[in-house]
C-alpha cells in the first residue's frame, strides 16, 4: 500500500484523545485504499463509519476516485452503462413475487437477474407486467444435454413462460426487458433453463402500449425461497 493508504475510516467519540495517526487519517481528505477489498472492509466495523450515500474513496488499484450512491460504488467522471435500480429479496416458500417500482422514465431498457435461492417442484417462472392479464406472446427454443432440440410457445396468453426454472440448487433467471415504461409494446429476451435437463433462449412481447412500473413472477408449480432479484437500467446516453 502507498503512504496515504488506510484500512479503516474511524468514527471518534466525544472526549476521545486523538493520536497523530488518527489526525493523519482525518487530514488526508478522501480516504485512500489499496483496493476494493480494503475499501469494503473499512466501513461498518467497531469504531468505523457506516457506509452511506455520499461517501468518497480513492483506489490505488486503477487510480480511480469513487463515490457511494446508496446502493453501489460508482467511479467519478464515468457514467456507468448499467445502473442498479432496485434490489429485492424473495420471501420464504412463496408461489409468486411482485417487484414494484422496477421501471421508470430514466431508462428504456432493463436487465433482470435472480441469483441464489431455491425452488421446490422445479417450477418454471411465468412473467406478467402490471395488471395486464392477456396479450402475451412468446417462444422458447431449447436443447437438452443429449443435443436434441425442442420448442414451446404461447400466443395471446395470460403470461410469458420464458424464464427457466428453480431447483434446490438455485434459481436461473437472466433477462433483458425493452420498453416496459414507454407506451409501446414491451419486449423480452432471456437465457433460459427451460427445465431440469434443457437450456436455451426465449423471446416474447406483450401486445399493447401500456406503461408498466412493476412485474410479477409466478411459479408454474411449487414455490420459491430466498434469492435476490436485481433490476439494472441500461443508460440511455
Can you tell me about this structure?
The mean pLDDT is 87. This protein has 237 residues and is mainly beta. It has 2 helices and 19 strands. It has helices spanning 20-26, 36-41, and strands at 32-33, 56-59, 64-68, 73-75, 82-89, 96-99, 109-115, 118-120, 124-129, 136-144, 149-157, 160-167, 170-171, 173-178, 186-195, 198-206, 215-219, 223-225, 228-234.
- The averaged pLDDT comes out at 87
Number of helices: 2
Euclidean distance between termini CA atoms:
36 Å
The helix fraction, in percent, is under 10%
State Rg: 23 Å
Total strand segments? 19
Secondary-structure-based class equals mainly beta
- Which strand order spans the largest sheet, edge to edge or round the barrel? 5-19-7-14-15-16-10-11
- The CATH architecture classification of the largest domain is Sandwich
Number of separate domains: 2
CATH top level assignment of the largest domain: Mainly Beta
Strand content: over 45%
Q: Per CATH, what is the topology of the largest domain? A: Jelly Rolls
Indicate the topology.
Blueprint: H1 20-26, E1 32-33, H2 36-41, E2 56-59, E3 64-68, E4 73-75, E5 82-89, E6 96-99, E7 109-115, E8 118-120, E9 124-129, E10 136-144, E11 149-157, E12 160-167, E13 170-171, E14 173-178, E15 186-195, E16 198-206, E17 215-219, E18 223-225, E19 228-234
Describe, in short, the structure shown.
The protein is mainly β and 237 residues long. The protein is built from 2 helices and 19 strands. The strands form 4 sheets. It has an 8-stranded antiparallel beta sheet with strand order 5-19-7-14-15-16-10-11, with no helix packed on it. Strands 6-17-9-12-13 form a 5-stranded antiparallel beta sheet, with no helix packed on it. A 4-stranded mixed beta sheet has the order 1-2-3-4.
Amino acid at each position: 500500500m502507498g503512504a496515504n493508504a488506510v484500512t479503516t475510516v474511524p468514527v471518534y467519540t466525544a472526549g476521545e484523545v486523538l493520536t497523530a495517526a488518527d489526525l493523519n487519517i482525518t487530514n488526508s481528505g478522501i480516504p485512500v485504499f489499496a483496493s476494493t477489498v480494503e475499501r469494503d472492509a473499512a466501513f461498518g466495523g467497531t469504531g468505523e463509519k457506516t457506509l452511506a450515500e455520499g461517501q468518497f474513496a480513492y483506489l490505488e488499484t486503477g487510480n480511480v476516485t469513487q463515490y457511494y450512491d446508496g446502493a453501489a460504488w460508482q467511479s467519478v467522471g464515468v457514467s456507468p452503462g448499467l445502473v442498479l435500480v432496485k434490489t429485492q429479496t424473495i420471501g420464504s416458500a412463496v408461489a409468486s413475487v411482485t417487484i414494484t417500482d422496477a421501471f421508470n422514465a430514466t431508462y428504456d431498457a432493463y436487465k433482470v437477474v435472480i441469483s441464489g435461492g431455491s425452488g421446490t417442484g422445479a417450477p418454471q417462472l411465468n412473467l406478467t407486467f402490471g395488471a395486464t392479464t392477456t396479450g402475451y406472446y412468446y417462444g422458447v427454443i431449447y436443447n437438452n444435454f443429449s443435443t436434441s432440440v425442442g420448442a414451446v410457445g404461447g400466443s395471446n396468453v395470460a403470461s410469458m413462460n420464458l424464464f427457466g426454472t428453480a431447483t434446490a440448487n438455485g434459481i436461473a433467471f437472466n433477462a433483458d426487458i425493452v420498453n416496459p415504461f414507454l407506451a409501446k409494446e414491451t419486449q423480452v429476451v432471456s437465457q433460459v433453463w427451460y427445465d431440469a435437463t434443457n437450456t436455451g433462449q426465449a423471446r416474447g412481447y406483450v401486445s399493447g402500449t401500456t406503461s408498466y412500473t412493476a412485474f410479477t413472477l409466478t411459479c408454474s408449480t411449487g414455490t420459491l425461497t430466498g434469492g435476490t432479484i436485481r433490476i439494472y437500467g441500461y443508460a440511455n446516453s
